[in-house]
Design goal:
Length: 311
């Protein structure tokens, strides 16, 4: 079969479409059953009561090992490799800054600070195979990484882009649809007041819920459920809603939960096909919704009620 090539908008790298499809087919070999449409959302998953670290404190090998232990995950990363990762992190943050300047004209200092604070190697873990792959962190050519159950840790340039695009502020309340690895919600938690995150894959959502407490991230709440319905119990709604998987259309339930002057970031398109586009929906003070196309993207699909089509 002739290999087709396309441009990855986030990373600026030319990648093989066939390779991308092979990656996501591999991701979906053993997917967990999606929650039935309309099913009640599960209660937030309880997590550990003590943290190994707090943001801003020194992050060393011993702390990394203890945080992994508290989160219920094993890691065989040697200390030498851990130290090499810390050196690579500085290079990655510089790449993020240059990328944001190129895309937006300037890099948001709060986004760069959040990236500097968070130990990304802590999030490189395959929950289906129960295997850490921290040594791959801060790769020179950013790419998505499989984390099991058909889900992926997005590349760090893409995550930085979506974070700055959402214009997060210290007083904001944020809803994320698609918890995945937990990195995006953790990143936002370093900037905003509160983050709520919904994951439809039960074993993934249950395990990832345990990673926040060891890092002292007290303002993140997660639960297992269908992101189509958002988190309606949160009074007043959300300043930012970020969907981290491609939807066929924007859920009307999410639009209802968007505050006036809020921003909803969502990839829209068909699963595993080219032509997906990142959209920005905004709601004005009068409650009227506006939308604009942003950039071409490629995401794994949002599942659940959204797959049924518009009602």
């Amino acid at each position: 079969m002739r290999t087709m090539k396309r441009m990855n908008i986030f990373t600026g790298l030319t990648v093989s479409l066939a390779a991308v499809l092979m990656l996501f087919l591999a991701l979906c070999l053993c997917p967990a059953p999606a929650q039935a449409a309309g099913e009640a959302l599960a209660a937030p998953v309880p997590v550990a009561t003590a943290g190994a670290w707090t943001p801003g404190a020194p992050w060393d090998y011993k702390t990394f090992r203890e945080a992994m232990r508290q989160s219920g995950r094993a890691s065989d990363l040697p200390e030498k490799d851990f130290n090499e990762l810390q050196a690579r992190k500085g290079v990655a943050v510089q790449a993020i800054e240059k990328y944001l300047v190129r895309r937006f004209g300037k890099a948001d200092p709060s986004v760069l600070r959040a990236f500097r604070e968070l130990p990304r190697e802590y999030y490189h873990y395959d929950y289906q195979q129960k295997r850490a792959f921290a040594s791959n962190t801060y790769e020179p050519a950013p790419k998505p990484w499989a984390i099991g159950y058909g889900s992926a840790l997005s590349d760090y340039l893409g995550q930085a882009y979506m974070t700055q695009l959402s214009r997060p502020r210290p007083g904001d309340t944020v809803l994320e649809i698609g918890t995945g690895s937990g990195f995006q919600s953790s990143l936002l938690s370093r900037i905003v007041k509160d983050v709520y995150s919904v994951e439809i894959i039960k074993p993934l959502g249950t395990d990832v819920a345990r990673i926040y407490k060891p890092l002292g991230l007290e303002n993140v709440r997660t639960r297992v459920g269908d992101g189509y319905f958002g988190w309606p119990e949160v009074k007043g709604g959300f300043d930012i809603i970020m969907v981290t998987c491609v939807a066929r259309y924007v859920s009307p339930e999410l639009l209802k939960q968007l505050k006036p002057e809020g921003r909803l970031i969502v990839p829209i398109g068909q699963p595993f096909k080219r032509g997906q586009v990142l959209y920005v929906f905004t709601k004005d003070k009068a409650g009227k919704v506006h939308s604009r196309k942003d950039v071409g993207v490629y995401f794994i699909p949002m599942t659940g009620k959204i797959m049924e089509g518009k009602s």
